[in-house]
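Can anyone check this?
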Amino acid sequence: MSEVANIKKQNLAGSKKMLLAMVSIGIISALLIVTTFELTLPRVQKLKAEALEKAIFEVLPGTVKTQAFGVNNNGELFKMEAGDKTETTVYAGYDDNNNIVGYAVEASGQGYADIIRVLYGYKPDKEILIGFQVLESKETPGLGDKIEKEVHFLNNFKALDVSLTSNKKELNNKVITVKQGEKVNPWEIDGITGATISSRAIGNIIGTSTETLVPILYNHFKNNNHKTSESNEQ
């Protein structure tokens, strides 16, 4: 066998070993990633559930217990059981006398960097939003994340108007975000200079969500409040 042929044979053998090593490393890495994900998933889900529960009580002051509801195709609330999953989930908050304090609503939409998930509190007897929290966001630190920290922005949600028309089927005015300092109406969100896209995204998320859900929640409240038995709920 010539020297050239011998070198080619050695290179081929070396390449096969390298390929096998790379495949092995890839398989081991994939197994480690999957195993780590599976082992940590319950813990992650538990922490998310705890954070959500805490947020619900904060956006609905006076709440002592909650009940999760989904929204069916007829635009009605139905009580959710463990394991149920729906596209839209709302949480009714109850006081000590089993009266409905309000509703905490999860909503989401596109922000500057990624999807923003928020929770807002709706008080149907006043027809206003009374609380707001960002559940998940990847907005730019120092700019977009001001939607979670800027006091004047968070103050928008102490009494944000989401009142309904006389037939209670639609909002009088859709919630929108305006430029910082230009808010003149109670249904407007005073934006954040320097975080324009993120603060507008919050207005879009809440405007879209309340436009659909507030009429449903108002009617649920009207039909179910002051009832002591949960069996009377839809």
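Reply from J.R.: I decoded it. Confidence is low (pLDDT under 50) at residues 228-234.
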